[in-house]
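We modelled the chain as a single entity of 117 amino acids. Its sequence is:
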Amino acid sequence: MDDYSSRQIGTEKAERSAAADANLMEMMFDAQRLMLGEIAFARNEWIDRTVTETHLLSEFLSKLAEAHSVKGLRTMYEECAQHQIDFLRRECDRLSKHGKRVIEVSSRLFDGGPPDG
């Protein structure tokens, strides 16, 4: 093996190593971006959930104050129970959609694509 061939092989190895390092750094930054996005999402969801629960409690107390009989209490209970069921259904749908989005973004991260989303 001559001196030129060994330098060429060394150069190719250095280029491959640099490319691998760049890919690794890009993946690490994408993973960091994904994690920060999830933290922001969790914060926003926590605030939205607090507002919704506060609204539901306010509505419950308002209906409780309006109820003047056992029949009124039963009607209030049925309405509030239906509101809670509807809320839980929407919450489960939202969490399912979010889980699907996280899986898609994570799979793009490991496929080498940008984790936009």
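As a brief sanity check on the tokenised model: The helical segments are 3-66, 70-111. The two ends are 51 Å apart (CA to CA).
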